[in-house]
Amino acid sequence: MTTSPEKTDLLAAFAEQRALLLITLRGLTDEQAARRTTVSELTLGGIVKHLAQGEETWTQIMTKGDGELPDGMLDMGQYRMAGGDTLPVLLERYARAAHATEEAVAALPDLDVSVPLPKTPWSPPEPQYWSARRILLHLIKETAQHAGHADIIREALDGANTTARR
Q: Which pTM does this prediction carry?
């Protein structure tokens, strides 16, 4: 299967954002990944868990195209490391989600494919549709935003920052 230049470029941009996040997480213990370092509830492990869940959810929305609410999409626990979570397991889940997203995008005929969005408590009354392109751009934006959050949390944790660790 051939991949369009647009798909290639967007997937490369997405991979770069994921890689920046992973630099920020290098060398952390589970305890560090679960620690809050700012007034925010966000933790480094919680960010990884949320981004993995986000990719799983949006990839399902994009590939199924049925408008159904994927399991876990509204689960607020996705933002925190639970007692049994470990950073290596969360990172493996994130890697699997990334691979699944890349495969799903590559398999699409093009990024103009339009899918219905699931109904959520904040949805407008009329059905909403997004193109696969918009879903992919949304995931890139989410990853970049949370990579920035992660960099601040990590710097507050032990002084490390992504720019210096590249």
A: 0.94
